[in-house]
Write a sequence for this structure.
C-alpha cells in the first residue's frame, strides 16, 4: 500500500522556480492547484500552473478581493495589480472558466477564485 511519503512531496524554494522545475521534469498534470504566495506574481503562477494542468484541473487563487481593492481601478498596489492581471489572463484564455467568491471571515472581507481548465 502507498504510504503518505509516496504521494506527498514538498518543494522548498521560490514558487516560480519550483513551478519551472516541475515543468522541466515533465511532472504529471495536477488535479488541483492552490495559488497563495506573493500576489504580485499571480500572473506567473497562473501561466506556469497551466503548463502543469489538464482538462479538468481546478486552480484556486486566494485573497483575490482584498477588501474591494482589486475592483478599485485607482488602486495600483503591486499585489492588487497582480490579482487584476491574473483575472485578465484568466478571462482572455478560452480554455478557462473563472469565478470569484467573496468571503467575510475573522480576518475581514476577501475572497477566492475558482478556475476550471477545460482544454
Ligand atoms: C498567505 S501565506 C500562504 C499560507 C499558506 N496558504 C498556508 O496555509 O500555509 C503566503 C506564503 O507565501 C510565501 N511566499 C511569498 N512569496 C513567495 C515566493 N516568491 N515563492 C514562494 N513562496 C512565497 C510566504 O512566505 C507565505 O508563507
Amino acid at each position: 500500500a502507498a504510504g503518505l511519503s509516496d504521494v506527498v512531496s514538498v518543494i522548498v524554494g521560490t514558487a516560480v522556480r519550483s513551478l519551472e522545475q516541475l515543468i522541466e521534469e515533465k511532472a504529471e498534470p495536477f488535479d488541483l492547484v492552490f495559488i497563495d504566495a506573493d500576489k504580485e506574481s499571480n500572473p506567473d503562477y497562473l501561466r506556469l500552473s497551466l503548463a502543469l494542468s489538464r482538462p479538468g484541473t481546478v486552480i484556486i487563487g486566494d485573497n483575490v478581493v482584498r477588501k474591494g481593492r482589486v475592483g478599485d481601478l485607482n488602486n495600483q498596489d503591486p499585489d492588487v495589480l497582480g490579482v487584476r492581471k491574473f483575472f485578465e489572463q484568466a478571462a482572455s484564455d478560452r480554455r478557462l472558466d473563472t469565478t470569484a467568491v467573496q468571503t467575510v471571515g475573522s480576518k475581514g472581507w476577501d475572497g477566492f477564485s475558482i478556475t476550471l481548465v477545460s482544454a
Q: What stands out?
A: The first helix runs from residue 4 to 7.
